[in-house]
Amino acid sequence: MSVLLLRLAGPLQAWGSAARFARRTTENAPTKSGIIGLLAGAQGRSREADLSDLASLRFGVRIDQPGTRLRDFQTAHHADSGKAMPLSERFYLEDAVFVAAVEGEPGLIDELHAAVREPAYLPYLGRRSCPPARPIDMGVRDSTDLESALRQADWQASSWHQRRARAAAVTAASRSTPPRPPTIRLDLLIDCAPDEDPDVTQRDEPVSFTPRHRQYGLRGIKTLTVHLPAGEAESPHHDPIAALRKA
Predict the structure, then answer these.
(1) Which residues partner with 5 through β-bridges?
(2) What's the whole-number average pLDDT of the chain?
(3) Does the residue 130 lie in any domain?
(4) What gap in Å lies between CA 47 and CA 214, rounded to an integer?
(5) Reported pTM
(6) Is the pLDDT at 232 greater than 80, yes or no?
(7) Distance CA 195, CA 181 (A)
(8) Which of 40, 138, 155, 204 could form a disulfide with 45 if both were Cys (CB 3.0 to 4.6 A apart)?
(9) Number of domain units in the chain
(10) Which residue range is the domain that position 57 belongs to?
């Protein structure tokens, strides 16, 4: 098996699994349906396309920087009549960073990796109004499993968050009896194996993205903890308009 790693970082993200009508909520971490949609879009698939091969991929996400929840209100008017539409309440995750991963056969993973590097449709973080702030591609890990790839990936949190988390970890470690090496604790959410009992369930298993009848199934999730050394890792710099400056 191979694993494709994705860096999901941006000013705003929104990953809804039960959002409807005028109230659009977000989960605390990327959903499987959101990531499968991102990958399908990168490949140029239509909303009516078969998703069975992508849905069968095992999915996991590591919460490197939880971010904060932002509440917003939006208004709109009908384009033809000018009539005011209902007030829309929308929630976002602000300043969050995640490492998402999908595990599957090497051939399909390589195809998805190529699509992420040269996407047919621009990727976004749950909603079109949420562009990524850094490159999404983190490469492919061959001959490994999903959990190991997520555990071994470098910490992707912003530099300011790393400094704050490291300081808190050092303080907590110094107060322990006996003193222990400082570590950073990260939450890890991965698909349950068929023979495992889930810690939580979520309706974000994609069945169909067709606008006429979107369908999602229940997904069992296992929650784990990752402990990383408290040393700071360099946060990669990304200028989204560098190409325009050169032009």
Answers:
(1) 101
(2) 90
(3) yes
(4) 9
(5) 0.86
(6) no
(7) 36
(8) 40
(9) 1
(10) 2-76+83-153+185-230
